[in-house]
Amino acid sequence: MERVEWVRGNALEPRTYQHLLPGAVGAISCVGGFGNTQQMIQVNGTANAAAIATAKAAGVPRFAYVSAHVPAIPGFEYVMEGYVKGKRQAEEELFREYPEGGVALRPWVIYGERAISSSVRLPLHLLFGPVDQLLRRLPNARQLAGTPLAGPLFLPPVPVQAVARAAVAAATDPLVPPGVMDVWEIAKYGDN
Question: Which PROSITE patterns does the protein's record reference (predicted)?
């Protein structure tokens, strides 16, 4: 963390961060959240679309956006309407602004140590780590993940470190192709 400079900004207010973008080799947005439908559209869609457009205007050549896998579960898109609409809105902006250098990462479940408060941490890796390893070793998990209803049970959760490595590669390495990086591709970054 000694090489990180923390700066406060607001994705909905580009003036708070646009001065940091010129000269950057890439940008990453992992802005997202839950709430009511309008809040989820604003946080997952509008905020990310603003960050993408601002980065493009500043001349940033590549952009990685941490989106989400939308499972084939009947009713999911209805229940999570704002979340799904917001993620789709941001991806549309990404591919419009960055057809040659935009990557949308679509993880399913991301796990690591979750801070609940300053003194309480939830060790999600104890639950999801073994599930991740099991599903990645299951020979036909990728095919089973496409089945209706039960498919999401075969999608491996990915460690937050894998998502971070994949996002950095997508934002900085021109050999990472533009488009969608699915959960299986993201999981490969956890093997490092």
Answer: PROKAR_LIPOPROTEIN
> What CATH code is assigned to 14-191?
3.40.50.720
Q: Where are the domains of the chain?
A: 14-191
What are the backbone angles phi and psi of residue 33, rounded to the nearest 5°? 180, 180
- Give the span between the Cα atoms of 88 and 70, in whole angstroms: 10
Cα separation, 139 vs 134, in Å, equals 10
Q: What percent of the chain has pLDDT over 90?
A: 65
Q: What is the pTM of this model?
A: 0.90
Give the tens place of pLDDT for each residue, 5-25: 788 899 999 999 999 999 999
Q: How far from 62 is each of 39, 79, 105, CA to CA, in Å?
A: 27, 33, 13
